[in-house]
Amino acid sequence: MTKEQVEKAIKKTINACRTASLQLLPPVLYQLMLLSAAGGARATALLGISKLFEHLEGQPSNQVDAEDGCGPLPTRTLKQVEATLLMHISTLLKYDAALGSEWLKWLKTHVSANQFLLQVCYCAEWGGICCFSSLALD
């Protein structure tokens, strides 16, 4: 696939994720990150994931989780989805140093980084990923 095709696929996937069930997001976003690494469109994927979580966190919290009928959806289920995705991303960061560099560049250039991006950086730092130590001092 060309870079333009990969970027189009990423944007389409992110738009579909806005209306998908939250439980389906981790495997879909994991595959999205793999696709972005193969197609050289990491920045597009990071922008899309960041905007997706900003959108999901901004939804009203009066919805009820359909699975067990209790608890607000964004506060409980969304945090579980974020945690699962963080696990996937930390695994990807161990094998793809360029992805780690893109995360850090994104964080440096966007002063108003959301909570999810900061969690990824903490996760990568605790995982001992070496690409962050040299780039953080730039």
Notable traits:
single chain, 0% strand, 138 residues, 72% helix, mainly alpha
Structure explained in plain terms:
- Helices cover 72% and strands 0% of the residues.
- It contains seven helices and no strands.
Give a topology summary.
Layout: H1 3-17, H2 25-39, H3 42-57, H4 73-95, H5 97-109, H6 115-126, H7 131-135
Helix pairs in contact: 1-2, 1-3, 2-3, 2-4, 3-5, 4-5, 4-6, 5-6
Task: List the helices and strands in order.
Answer: HHHHHHH
List low-confidence stretches.
Answer: 64-72
Radius of gyration: 15 Å
Task: Quickly count the helices.
Answer: 7
Query: What's the number of extended β-strand segments?
Result: 0
- Tell the overall outline: globular
Major sheet size, sense and barrel closure: none
Average pLDDT, all residues: 75
Q: What fraction of residues sit in β-strands?
A: under 5%
Q: What level of helicity do the residues show?
A: over 70%
Alpha-beta content class:
mainly alpha
The end-to-end span amounts to: 33 Å
Structure, briefly:
This protein is an all-alpha fold and 138 residues long. It has seven helices and no strands.
